[in-house]
Structures are given as structure tokens and as C-alpha cells.
């Protein structure tokens, strides 16, 4: 019960498990793929990982996704003979 209360005040609480796993993977946390949200939050906090890093990683992945969709939309306009 105490762990659950501490995670509710965590800055990581507003993020999805997929995003937390991405951050854990970046920091080479072992078995990150087996962890549930509460365990991920506690592990990230225990490793003194900052939320700002997660925001940077997410902004970089969103930029890459946007550029990929732009490239795909440009390719669909090409007429095949």
C-alpha cells in the first residue's frame, strides 16, 4: 500500500507503460519488458531517472514518426506507369 501511495505522487504517473518501457530501455534496465506500470515507476525513481529525459525521448520519436508519415504521403502521389 505504501508503494502505491508513493507512485501516485510520481511525475511518471501520467505516462503510458509503453513510454515508461522506452525510458527504461534507454537506461539499460534489465527485464524492463516484464515490469508493470507500478514496478516501472518505482524502478525509474530508484535509478534517479528524470522525467525530462522521457519528454526528450518522446519528442524525438514523435518527430521521427511525423517525418515518416510525410514521406509515405509523398510516395502515394507518384503515378505508376
Structure description:
There is one protein chain. This protein starts with a helix and ends in a 5-residue tail after the last helix. The protein has helices at residues 2-8, 17-26, 37-46, 51-76. The chain is an all-alpha fold and 81 residues long. Helix 2 (17-26) runs parallel beside helix 3 and helix 2 packs across helix 4. It has one domain.
Task: Furnish the topology, listing elements before pairings.
Layout: H1 2-8, H2 17-26, H3 37-46, H4 51-76
Q: How would you summarize what this structure contains?
A:
Helices cover 65% and strands 0% of the residues. By secondary structure, the protein is mostly helical. The radius of gyration is 17 Å and the shape is globular.
N- to C-terminal separation?
Answer: 66 Å
Q: What number of structural domains do the residues give?
A: 1
By oligomeric state, this entry counts as single chain
Number of strands: 0
- DSSP helical segment count: 4
- Helix fraction, binned, reads 55-70%
Whole-number radius of gyration? Answer: 17 Å
Our estimate of the beta-strand percent is under 5%
Query: Mean pLDDT, as a whole number?
Result: 79
Name the overall outline: globular
| Overall SS class | mainly alpha
Summarize the main sheet: none
User: Can you tell me the residue ranges where pLDDT is under 50 for at least 5 consecutive residues?
Assistant: none
Which H/E pattern describes the elements? Answer: HHHH
